Known about the structure:
Number of domains: 1
Low-confidence stretches: 217-221
Oligomer: single chain
Order of helices and strands: EHEHHHHHEHEHHHEHH
Structural class: alpha/beta
Amino acid sequence: MNNNKIIIxxxxxxxxxxxxxxxxxxxxxxxxxxxxxxxxxxKSYQHLFVKLKFKDIFLKFYKNANQxxxxxxxxxHEFYYLNQAHGDICSLDQSLMHAIDKNVLINKKIIxxxxxxxxxxxxxxxxxxxxVIILREPKKIIKKYKKDKFKKMIIKEIEKxxxxxxxxxSKKDKNSLIIRFDxxxxxxxxxxxxxxxxxxxxxxxxxxxxxxxxxxxxxNY
Length: 221
């Protein structure tokens, strides 16, 4: 891997807020991979644009884009219900890691920020990555899923998956920095500094700052 660093967020732990913090203070930006790398829908289907009406184009785009999401191309049965709810809850494999390396990690100015679950195979593929892991108590996360009719139907199962996610990534090792979301909110400068230093990222922050608050939980990410 060219750029073996990654941020892993449990869903509902301020992914977009952390992304904004990187934009403001760090020398690199976060990159959230949802679709299989090197997927270019518009290039593949540009010949249809002059023949089809806008509605038809939209429907074809919607269908194909969903089929190219990581939770579709690399299903994760161990976290089945979170896999249904988030586009990047997936099971890594050799082909996907090669595609990520070739099309994403080659860019030294970005760092992957994902919801990759702690499956056995994912831990193997990410073993040599420096990992910042942002965790949050599932009971404080689960309410966001109640806003969606489908997710509300499987709310108990999603909560069980969140508990497994939290437990699975809780074990410390030399390549992992575990940050609690509540701590990040309470002491943003201290924890952001820890994150940047752990990842060897250059940064510049004011002496006093508040953690950016961006809530995009209604999106299927």
